[in-house]
Write a structure and sequence with these properties.
Elements lengths: L2 H11 L8 E6 L4 H8 L4 E6 L13 H13 L4 E5 L6 E6 L6 E3 L2 H13 L6 E5 L5 H7 L5 E4 L10 H4 L6 E4 L5 E4 L4 H18 L4 H12 L1 E10 L3 H16 L4 E2 L2 E8 L4 E4 L5 E3 L8 E5 L3 E7 L3 E10 L7 H24 L2
Parallel strand pairs: 1-2, 1-3, 6-7, 6-8
Antiparallel strand pairs: 3-4, 4-5, 8-9, 10-17, 11-12, 12-13, 12-15, 13-14, 15-16, 16-17
């Protein structure tokens, strides 16, 4: 049974919800212009000071920042929480798994997928440029609309200062960084417009006794479930740099057949645009962004990107799964996160080999 048929059956079984959507904005200061724009959607809007605002350019909203906000929102019958940074176009969403359920925090990949689908419904010429640390499910989503995704190796905050953003674009371009900064270039009020689209989608979902979490599950059912996790390890000490340099060199020059109990399918060297298939022994050219990084594909539908900088090593893990139900979401995420911990331990073993 397709997800569209399932959704129709849900709508037939449940009468329309006529209650107004209740949205809570939380930030380090009142967002007067944003509140005025969202109020035009005929929703109940409130604001709450966030107890722990973001403190740096690469800081992102986490559950720690929003735990107290979510607790208050649940008590006060809030449907949607929007956390906003007052200085950059950073935001994240707190959504209910069920109409009257507890809140979960959307990560940047969830928010990107929700926004992309909403925009593609009404922006025929939409382009997208995303960080290399953002889900590649966006590639599948945009491919359905016959649009390619431009992946950029280095896309830090603030986005507006980056060369990729300042280059001329034809039409509107959605920029997404791993730091929860999202800008629709071509819109004079990107933040207000994007959050208006999200709030309107949440309002429509509530009328159907659904939430934005149902919309996310719908995307996963259409394109496959994926879990992404970004970890950073400090390499400020010379011994740390030497340790990870040894790991990268081993994977480049003489990769093992497996890591732990999982076979390695391929190793892509993004610095020279080549991919080495360990099963066939062939090396082919790729079109990935040119950067000093490695992408390792494993045999269990997982892969990891190793991206070194001066101060740290970034590990970006991706695990793929099958069609899921709402009830499977938390369990699958936990299972994949446990897999990442074990995998990182096995990667570190390469640095201890003689």
């Amino acid at each position: 049974m397709t997800s569209s048929v399932q959704n129709q059956e849900i709508q037939d079984q449940n009468p329309a919800n006529t209650e107004r959507l209740k949205v809570l904005i939380t930030s380090d200061r009142p967002m007067t212009e944003l509140e005025a724009k969202l109020s035009n959607l005929e929703i109940d809007l409130s604001w709450q000071n966030i107890s722990e605002p973001l403190t740096s350019l690469d800081d992102t909203f986490t559950f720690r920042h929003l735990k107290a906000v979510f607790e208050d929102a649940e008590k006060n019958g809030i449907d949607l929480v929007i956390a906003v940074d007052s200085t950059l176009d950073k935001f994240t969403l707190g959504v209910r798994k069920l109409i009257d359920g507890k809140f979960i925090l959307f990560n940047i990949h969830h928010t990107a997928l929700i926004l992309a689908r909403l925009l593609l419904e009404n922006h025929g010429s939409l382009q997208i440029k995303k960080s290399i640390f953002i889900t590649d499910l966006l590639d599948k989503l945009f491919a359905k609309h016959q649009t390619e995704v431009a992946t950029i190796a280095n896309l830090p905050s603030p986005l507006k200062d980056q060369e990729a953003f300042q280059q001329p674009d034809s039409g509107e371009t959605l920029f997404i960084s791993e730091n929860q900064e999202i800008i629709l270039k071509g819109q004079s009020d990107s933040l207000g417009y994007l959050l208006s689209r999200i709030a309107y989608a949440a309002k429509k979902a509530k009328a159907e006794n659904r939430t934005l979490f149902d919309s996310l599950i719908g995307i996963y059912n259409d394109f496959g479930f994926q879990r992404e996790k970004n970890l950073a390890v400090s390499i400020e000490e010379p011994t740390q740099k030497a340790f990870f340099k040894k790991i990268i060199a081993r994977l480049k020059k003489k990769p093992p057949l497996s890591i732990g109990m999982t076979e390695i399918i391929s190793v892509e060297d993004l610095s020279n645009g080549t991919l080495r298939n360990l099963l066939s022994g062939r090396t082919v050219s790729t079109q990935s962004p040119s950067v000093d990084a490695l992408l390792v594909q494993l045999g269990n539908n997982s892969r990891f990107l190793i991206f070194p900088t001066e101060q740290k090593i970034n590990f970006f893990f991706t695990s793929q799964g099958k069609l899921i139900r709402k009830d499977d979401f938390t369990t699958l995420n936990q299972q994949f996160d446990q897999r990442v911990v074990k995998l990182l331990s096995e990667i570190n073993r390469l640095g201890h080999e003689k």
